[in-house]
DUF4159 domain-containing protein
Amino acid sequence: MKQPLFLIFIFLYFSVNAQDVAILKYNGGGDWYANPTAVPNLIAFANANIGTHISKDPQPVTIDSEDIFNFPILFMTGHGNILFSDDDANNLRNYLISGGFLHVSDNYGLDKHIRRELKKVFPNLEFKEIPNNHPIYNQTYKFKNGIPKIHEHDKKAAQGFGLFYESRLVVFYDYETDLSDGWEDEIVHNNPKNVREKSLKMGANIIEFAFKN
């Protein structure tokens, strides 16, 4: 679904003046709805600690919808397959190059699928590991060692990857850490308080970075 330029400008105007977030719905059979308490808890934390005024209930939006242009940041997670149609990929690309931002949290089993499908969005871009001195790790909260380890998957180090379009970070991908697990209600994963706090602070940094950039 190709966006006329005047629509892109209109939607971008509203997105940069809004402080709402959305959860991205995708096809392919993966559970885009995983971790249902995660983003609401992150919103509550951000509103209480970094001065945001985000609506408490994140909106689910389909990837091929013009509605994505109303949000400065989209959250995406899941465990399984992802499938972008040509229209999906084109719409997401227009959103991202128009000022939007996508955070992808690997809830285990997402990696090979998200890498494949984002190649449809940006065929010429490769994920780059984000250095520890990047602004996304240095917003209100400072993470001098980069992305924190929240949840164990395959006994690998936590990594934060990014897609950069014309030098701007447009996709942030947390791998082997599962930040969104740390945002969920404490009872879901029984993460210690200090682990949940690290995860929420990193999530708040992501929101703050997306709103500013």
Notes: The chain has one domain: 5-212. Confidence is low (pLDDT under 50) at residues 1-17. Residues 5-212 form a domain with the Rossmann fold fold (CATH 3.40.50.12140).
